[in-house]
Amino acid sequence: MMDVSGVGFPSKVPWKKMSAEELENQYCPSRWVVRLGAEEALRTYSQIGIEATTRARATRKSLLHVPYGDGEGEKVDIYFPDESSEGSLPFFLFFHGGYWQSGSKDESAFMVHPLTAQGVAVVIVAYGIAPKGTLDHMVDQVTRSVAFVQKRYPSNKGIYLCGHSAGAHLAAMMLLADWTKHGVTPNLRGFFLVSGVFDLEPIVYTSQNVALQLTLEDAQRNSPQLKVAQAQPVDPTCRVLVVVGQFDSPEFHRQSWEFYQVLPVQTLCQGEWKASFEELHDVDHFEIVENLTQKDNVLTQIILKTIFQ
Ligand SMILES: Nc1ccccc1C(=O)C[C@H](N)C(=O)O
Q1: Does 28 contact ligand 1 (Cβ within 6 A)?
Q2: Which of 2, 4, 48, 168 could form a disulfide with 193, with the two C-beta atoms 3.0–4.6 Å apart?
């Protein structure tokens, strides 16, 4: 593709100059894991997710497979702190990753133990992955899951959305949601966008698109990178944290940094979101979430501080 940036200036869209192999590589997070081989990294990730979920279900008060809609698979698992009054709590919703085509709520309860121990209710959200589900439908499902939590727990102490990888994209799309047609305005107080993809155009040219079947128009319509500057701010004190792992690929770093740059942040008194950007030291695309099983982990602590500030 042609470089229109001019000689001597780095292209604003470096991926357009990449070979197909390089683009594929940049958007394959497991190939950037340094501590393990790619396949072993994916296996370990799912194993840690399954163990955390098994533990959460065995030790925490929970409501499992609660429907948030009539569609197949439109379910959430809700985990509560011990001896809590069910409604008056901060709610932390997690949207799993896996390029909108893998992963499930049943292996994604990473953060349940440390967050519920501190008095936070954790909701792990399932959505209909590709090739069965389309991206537009996933965005609609996630929107309905957030509205569902607000309707079920109207006295909540804040709703916090966290997504990883493709799930961070889905969470970011909630900055653009039109809540009026859902009959409720969720009490959104924070977004934790972990190693996300916010401009979907490059994905169209990778093997991920075999299952996704995104057209360029689908990708643009679903790119918060292109839309968020025009979005209505949610709540003046709502926090948006964009975070990426040190060992994430350069394209993943660019995705997070550029999304942070277009967030309409500015100052609190102008009524816009308080945003911050963090590169987490010494973690890759998978460890960044695996470590949420630990209470002393940096990101766990950032999440707790944000919720209880
Ligand atoms: N399973 C995941 C869970 C979370 C986030 C990404 C993935 C991926 O599999 C990404 C891609 N297929 C990879 O091999 O890196």
Answers
A1: yes
A2: 168
| Residue burial 233-247, b: 16+ Cβ < 10 Å; e: rest | ebeeebbbbbbbbeb
Atom 7 of ligand 1, nearest CA residue? 98
Query: Is residue 99 within 6 Å of ligand 1 at its C-beta?
Result: yes
Question: Is residue 285 flagged as an active site residue?
Answer: yes
Residue 54, domain CATH: 3.40.50.1820
Q: Band the pLDDT of 83: cuts 50, 70, 90.
A: confident
3-state secondary structure 172-212: HHCCCCCHHHHCCCCCEEEEEEECCCCCCHHHHHCCCHHHH
- Does the residue 6 lie in any domain? no
- Considering the candidates 77, 248, 256, 284, report the single residue annotated as catalytic: 248
Could you tell me if residue 5 is inside a domain?
no
ipTM over 0.95: no
Rounded CA gap, 51 and 235, in Å? 36
Residue bearing tokens 């964009």 = 242
Indicate which residue's Cα is closest to atom 9 of ligand 1.
98
Judge whether 256 lies within some domain.
yes
Pocket test for ligand 1, best of 26, 36, 45 (most atoms within 8 A of CB): 45
CA angle 288, 290, 295 (to 5 degrees): 95
CB-ligand 1 contact for 36 (6 Å cutoff): no
Amino acid at 308: F
* CB contact at 8 A, 208 and 130: no
For 289, the domain range is 14-308
pLDDT in tens, 195-232: 999 999 999 999 999 999 999 999 999 999 999 988 87
Q: Is 113 a catalytic residue?
A: no
| pTM recorded for the entire structure | 0.94
